[in-house]
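Hey, I'm writing a tutorial for new members on how sequence and structure tokens pair up, and I'd like a real worked example in the thread rather than a made-up one. If someone can provide the structure for the chain below, I'll link this post from the tutorial.
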Amino acid sequence: MLALCLATLMSALSAPADTTLPFYPGPVHKLDVGGRSLAVLDTGGGGPPVVLVHGLGTNLSLWRATVPALEAAGHRVIALDLPGYGLSDKAGVTGTMAGFADAVVGVMDALGLRQPDVVGVSMGGQVALTLALDQPQRVRRLALLSPAGIETFTEGQAAALVGVMTPAAIAGTTGAQAEANVRANFSAYDPARDGWILEQRRAVVARDDFPDYAAANAASVAGMLDGPVFDRLGALAVPTLVLYGADDALIPNRFLHPTRTTADVADAARAIPGAEVHLIDDAGHLVMLEQAGVVNRHLVRFLAE
């Protein structure tokens, strides 16, 4: 049986992935998940597995400071590009949180992972929450970095966001707007540390599948708003760590919720039973890049418990 499982795994990982995007933290392979090709990084080894789920508009390269730290701590680290993102297939993505959670489970099943730890950032945090709520038996411990889904919106606010985040608007983002968007993810943007994101975005725009990527982003925004999890947090049954950057300029939404603070959203996360919640100083939305050392220490400690 073990030999058969290993043979199946090696067959699934045999074809190297398209490598036309720079700054990935390691080599990736393609897995067939539900008839869709998904790009996956897998450090291998026999250590406790941890699955990393990226956020809206990004890909697994967001974990470039996280993968080596968790691997050094003895973990088998798996990071995937969700459908519609990075080097994964992009056409026809529905963008629902349940659909993304199913894709994560599909990767877990393809790699023989019964109950790994799951770490999600931003939209990936909402995907991870959806997975842990719907299929708690598949998640050992849950770590959420700047998670979406805890801030709530009225129907009118949700409709306004969907109306702004259209495929055409996303595809038409100018270079100056893209730079402003990237800067907004940090408390103190450092071109030497963070400029790779803009360079990679130029490579994303140059790909033939960029229109499908833009459509997947728009669908994901609608999916986040259509798949709220806040009212279900009290039912979460797995140990959970929540980290927000104290200077997060994206959560809460500053236009729709100008009087709310990131600390307010972090306090709302305490609705998760037994949750360990921290605000990280001198960090914005991409907390695992801006304060990599602090976040990695939290993750290594929490996942070892």
